[in-house]
Write a structure and sequence with these properties.
This protein is α+β, with helices and mostly antiparallel strands and 286 residues long. It contains eight helices and nine strands. It folds into three domains: 115 residues, Acyl-CoA dehydrogenase/oxidase, N-terminal domain (Butyryl-Coa Dehydrogenase, subunit A, domain 1); 103 residues, Butyryl-CoA Dehydrogenase, subunit A, domain 2 (Beta Barrel); 44 residues. Helix 5 runs antiparallel to helix 6 and helix 7 runs antiparallel to helix 8. The protein is elongated. It starts with 6 loop residues before the first helix and ends with a helix. This is Acyl-CoA dehydrogenase. Its cofactor is FAD. Pfam families: Acyl-CoA_dh_1, Acyl-CoA_dh_M, Acyl-CoA_dh_N. Belongs to the acyl-CoA dehydrogenase family.
């Protein structure tokens, strides 16, 4: 079986890498890390308008391009390589995937086109103060309120939660864990940015006090959707890490060529060759 990327996928990689080299150099990354929003609005718009990155895996009937997950992995490797500061992971990998797999055509039709166009920044809020990632960690309550629902409780470590226009929320109803959506400026929703170790990826605490919400999918079926989304998110995060590992390898190899000791490049020494070969094996195997 051939696991190599296709010619079209490699072309996509080249386009994305060139774009990120122009708009996400190290100087820009360091500047955006220090901002509250954590991303540049113009770059975000160009990602959607020039490359269509936000629409990549969204079905065509909802304004997307309908590509598969492998194409998204190619893009994420390049974003990891560049340490892109943008709400792409939260919007596409978490929120868009949740809407795609929730089986709610009405919600998908209403919300996915905005994500595909780059107009909507979205996120998924499911982790709470316990920090647990399993079904039992979701204790936030959703109460039926006429034809709608009301959310009360808190969510922690929400990626880009302080800037999101759309928040998908996992909460517990009588039927079990269910999914809902609210707007970022909903009445009763308080958003607080959190300090993070990785300043390229912003997080927030979201406090809900009687926030009106709309059910996504079937009541009580939210956890099965989240399990699928979290599996996909783990693969996506691994792709970013592969991209980061690749640039580390490239930097190390270049240094081994440039650094001279005892009258010759240190890359000519067997011990250094073995270390570089081991790194290459690890990166290629990933």
């Amino acid at each position: 079986m051939n696991f190599a990327f296709s010619e079209e996928q490699e072309t996509l990689r080249e386009f994305v890498r060139q774009f990120l080299e122009n708009y996400s150099p190290e100087t820009t990354v360091r500047e955006l890390m220090e901002t509250d929003a954590g991303y540049d609005t113009e770059t975000w718009s160009m990602m959607a308008e020039q490359l269509g990155l936000q629409s990549l895996i969204i079905p065509e009937e909802h304004g997307g391009q309908g590509f598969g997950y492998v194409e998204l992995i190619v893009v994420l490797e390049e974003m990891g390589r560049a340490l892109l500061c943008a709400p792409f992971f939260s919007t596409v990998v978490l929120a868009a995937n949740t809407l795609i797999h929730a089986g709610d055509e009405a919600a998908a039709s209403a919300l996915l086109p905005g994500i595909a166009s780059g107009e909507t920044i979205a996120t998924l809020a499911f982790t709470e103060e316990s920090g647990r990632w399993d079904e039992g960690g979701i204790t936030m309550e959703a109460t039926a309120d006429g034809d709608g629902w009301t959310l009360s409780g808190s969510k922690m470590y929400v990626l880009d939660g302080h800037v999101a226009d759309l928040v998908l929320v996992a909460a517990r109803t009588v039927g079990g864990v269910s999914l809902f959506y609210v707007t970022g400026d909903a009445e009763g929703l308080t958003r607080t940015a959190l300090a993070t170790m990785d300043m390229t990826r912003k997080q927030a605490r979201l406090d809900f006090e009687g926030v009106s919400a709309t059910l996504v999918g079937a009541e009580g079926e939210g956890w099965s959707v989240l399990e699928r989304v979290l599996d996909l998110a783990a693969v996506a995060l691994a792709a970013e890490q592969v991209g980061g590992a690749q640039v580390c390898l490239d930097t190390a190899v270049q240094y081994a060529k440039d650094r001279v000791q005892f009258g010759r490049p240190i890359g000519s020494f067997q011990a250094i060759k073995h270390k570089c070969a081991d790194m290459l094996l690890e990166v290629e195997s990933a």
